[in-house]
Amino acid sequence: MSLRSGFRSLLRRIACAALASAFIPLVTHAASLQIQLTDSHDRNAAGLGIVVNTTSTEPTSPTPPTAVIDQRHEQFVPRVSIVQRGTEVSFPNTDRVQHHVYSFSPAKQFELALYRGNEHPPVTFDQDGIVVLGCNIHDHMIGYVLVVDSSHFGFSDQAGRLSLDGLPNETVKVTVWHPDLGIDYGAVTRTVALAPGNNVLQVKLDRSWPAKQEQSLSWNGY
After folding, report:
1. Cβ distance 75 to 141 under 8 Å?
2. Is the pLDDT of residue 74 over 50?
3. Mean pLDDT confidence for 165-194
4. What DSSP state is assigned to residue 113?
5. Residue 100: phi, psi to the nearest 5?
6. pLDDT in tens, 95-141
């Protein structure tokens, strides 16, 4: 093989290698986070809302997320919800009696006049904050919706744990919330620097859990 032909062969190999590398997908190593909640007596704290806020820009969905808050046995089901900002929430009434759902909360003020079934369209929750729900007919009906600017949230299970995947490798803010704690959103927070792979965060509350529902946030002032 001549020097010129050998040089041309080398250039072809380099070009082929460059072309092949262009089709290799970029691999991003996302982080996962397991949060473990305990109360002041070292008991597992179940049913608490947990929200992870990141500094990364979250992808937007072409269709808004949806959620359902039913009305059964004169109660909001679920009583406590967390939704991402922009979520459309339906309020079906499966009771045999009529309900009149409303909220005076600054984060979302709305009213669904007396109805049964699915007479009203979904309500879009488009502002962060706590929304306290009520029924104009049954004063004992109170529900809570926490609207957050994050898609990373959930509730701790019976073991006091929540696992979240697909988090960025950065320092994130973890917030623990529930109306029965009698606190505003943001009162129990931690920051944690996430590394690729599995991460664990343990949070111990400074009170016993479950708390008495009498401590819940009321609709007054919200």
Report:
1. yes
2. yes
3. 94
4. E
5. -130, 95
6. 999 999 999 999 999 999 999 999 999 999 999 999 999 999 999 99
Rounded distance between C-alpha atoms, residue 191 and residue 175, angstroms: 9
**Those residues with Cβ within 8 angstroms of residue 150's Cβ, 6 or more apart along the chain or in another chain:** 51, 52, 53, 54, 58, 84
Q: Which two tokens stand for residue 193?
A: 């620097």
Is residue 128 within 8 Å of residue 145, measured between CB atoms? Answer: no
Q: Inform me whether the pLDDT recorded for 44 exceeds 50.
A: yes
Confidence of residue 9 (pLDDT cuts 50, 70, 90): low
Among 131, 138, 72, smallest CA distance to 106 is for: 131
Q: What is the pLDDT of residue 22?
A: 45
Residue 14 parent element (H or E): helix 3-21
Q: Where are the domains of the chain?
A: 31-213
CB 159 within 8 A of CB 48: no
The answer for 186, left when phi > 0, alpha when psi is -120 to 50, beta otherwise, is left
Nearest to 48 by CA among 147, 192, 177: 177
Comparing C-alpha atoms, which of 130, 135, 88 is closest to residue 112?
135
Beta-bridged to residue 68, according to DSSP, are: 90
Q: Domain 31-213: what homologous superfamily?
A: Cupredoxins -  blue copper proteins (2.60.40.420)
Between 164 and 222, the more confident residue is 164
The residues, any chain, with a CB within 8 Å of residue 2's CB and separated by 6 or more, are none
Report CA torsion sign: 181, 215, 105, 94. Answer: positive
